[in-house]
Amino acid sequence: MLSADGKKIISCSDDHTVRMWDVAMGQQIQIFKGHSDWVNVAVFSPDCQIVASGSVDGTIRLWDVKSGRELQKMEGHLNWIWDVNFSSDGKYIVSGSSDTTIRLWDINSGKEIQKMLGHSTVVLSVQFSPDGQMIVSSSTDKTIGLWSVKSGERLKEFNGHSSYVRRAQFSPDGKFIVSCSDDKTIRIWDVKSGKELKKLKGHSSGVNDVKYFSYSQTILSCSADRTVRLWDVKSGQKIQKLKGNARAVRCVDSCDADIIKLQFSYCFPLLLFSFTLFYIGYVKKRKKNFQVCRLHMCKYLYAKKKKRKTYCLKSILSKSSVQHNIVDINSLQTDFLIDNAIRTFSCCAIVSMLSIMFILLFLILI
C-alpha cells in the first residue's frame, strides 16, 4: 500500500514481517516483527502514524510507524485474516476472514465491537464507506455485501459475478461500488439501488484488484493475465493497458498524482506519464514506446530500438545518485523481472521540462 502522501510503501510477506519503504530512495526504513505466520495485508492509518496488519495467524496488529513498536494485538477471528482497513477518522478497523465473518474493532481499546454474519465462505476484502456509516465486503461465495456499521446488519447483497469476488471498493463519493472477480470482469454497482450499472470486460484471466482514482472517473485494475488496465468509468471502455509483468499482478495502488501530462512546443510530442504502484507504464513518443519503471529499487528507462545499445545517464530525472539506463526492452532476461522486488514508477518527484527535453534531444542525436 502507498501512503496518502505517496512517500512511503508498506508491504507484507510470507516471511511473517511487515516492512516500510521510502519511495524516493527505494530503501527499507522500518520493519515490523511479531506475527507468527504469513502476513496477508498491511495498511496505513489515514494520518500515516499507524500501520495495521492481518495474518494467517488469525491476529490483527497495530504498529507505530516511527518506532516500529507493536501497539495492539486484536484477537477474535478463528481463521486467516485476508483484509483490514481503517475508517476515515482512524478510530476503527474492519477485518475480513476465512471464518466467514467481518469484524469491527476499536483502535484505542483493541476490543471487538461488532461481528457481521452473512457470507457463507471466505471474506476476501472489506472497506469503509467515505462517511464511515457502511462497510462493503467481497467473498468467495461470489457476492458483495453492504453492511451498517452501527447495527452490523446486512443492508444489501449484490449478485452477478460468477466466481470469487476478489475486491469491492467504494467510489470516493460513496455513491458507487466497483468490484472485480475471477470471472474476468469488473462491475460497477449503484449503492442506493443495488443495481449493476456496468460490466467491464477485457482481462483474459481473473481480476485480482481494482481501485478508483481519487477523482472517480478512472478505475485501475490488475489481473492474473499479467496486465494492469485503466478504465473510463463513464463509458466503461479501456483507456490503457500496461504490460511487462512476468507473473500475475496481485495488487495495485496509486497516489493522488496519478496522471501527469507535459505539453512541449510543436516540435516535441505530448508525453503521457502514468504513475502507479508496482507496475510498468508507457510514455509514448510518436510511434516509439518508452517504458518508465523502477526495478529492484533502482530506476530504469527502457526504450525499444532496432539495435541493442545501452546508454547511461547519471541522475537526469532526480537529484539522487541512482543512474538511469536506456536499454532495449527485448535485451532483458526474463528472470530479471522475477525478483520479488517492489516495483514503482519513478513517481514524478523532481521531473522538470528541461530534463525531459534533454533526454529527448539525447535520444534524437543518437
TrEMBL record:
Q: Where is the EML-like second beta-propeller domain?
A: 7-157
Any idea which UniProt keywords this protein has? Membrane, Repeat, Transmembrane, Transmembrane helix, WD repeat
Source organism of the structure: Reticulomyxa filosa
The name of this protein is WD-40 repeat protein
- For this protein, the parts annotated as crossing the membrane are 263-282, 345-365
Q: Does the keyword Transferase apply?
A: no
Ranges of the WD repeats in the UniProt entry: 1-31, 32-73, 74-115, 116-157, 158-199, 200-241
Give the highest taxon in the source lineage: Eukaryota
Q: Which PANTHER family match?
A: TRANSCRIPTION INITIATION FACTOR TFIID (PTHR19879), TRANSCRIPTION INITIATION FACTOR TFIID SUBUNIT 5 (PTHR19879:SF9)
Lyase as UniProt keyword: no
InterPro entries assigned: Beta-prop_EML-like_2nd (IPR055442), WD40/YVTN_repeat-like_dom_sf (IPR015943), WD40_PAC1 (IPR020472), WD40_repeat_CS (IPR019775), WD40_repeat_dom_sf (IPR036322), WD40_rpt (IPR001680)
